[in-house]
Amino acid sequence: MIFAAVAAAIVIGWNGWRLLRPAMNELMDRAPGRELEESTRAIAESVAGVEYVEKCFVRKMGHQFYVDMHVEGIHK
Questions:
Q1: How far apart are CA 62 and CA 29, in angstroms?
Q2: Cβ atoms within 10 Å of 56's Cβ, excluding its own
Q3: Alpha carbons 76 and 64: distance in angstroms, whole number
Q4: Alpha-carbon gap, residue 37 to 46, rounded angstroms
Q5: Among the listed residues 54, 57, 34, 53, the one whose alpha carbon sits nearest the alpha carbon of residue 44
Q6: Residue 50's beta-bridge partner residues?
Q7: CA nearest 57: which of 47, 75, 70?
Q8: Cα–Cα dist 16/18, whole Å
Q9: Three-class SS of the chain
């Protein structure tokens, strides 16, 4: 009987952790994967007139992503 209670507690704890971890990542403003930042940087560098993207920070805000970047371009 006690083994079943311990097993149930472990399953409940594991599922709670799986649900809590993504929510905590959003609350703590964790940056998304490096791949998203690199693809955002590549898209910005492909725009005409952009020479270099100095800084690129990507953060998740709700269901969208917020991108903060410093872009160096050609002065005309």
A1: 11
A2: 18
A3: 34
A4: 14
A5: 53
A6: 73
A7: 70
A8: 5
A9: CHHHHHHHHHHHHHHHHHHHHHHHHHHCCCCCCHHHHHHHHHHHHCCCCEEEEEEEEEEEECCEEEEEEEEEECCC
Q: What's the predicted TM-score (pTM) here?
A: 0.61
Distance, CA of 37 to CA of 65 (rounded, Å) = 11
C-alpha distances out from residue 21 to 1, 4, 12, 40, 54, Å: 30, 26, 14, 25, 31
CA distance 68 to 54: 11
Distances (CA, A) of 68 to 22, 39, 53: 22, 14, 11
**pLDDT tens column, 30-65:** 778 889 999 999 999 898 888 889 898 888 877 888
Reading the block at residue 26, the tokens are 């959003």
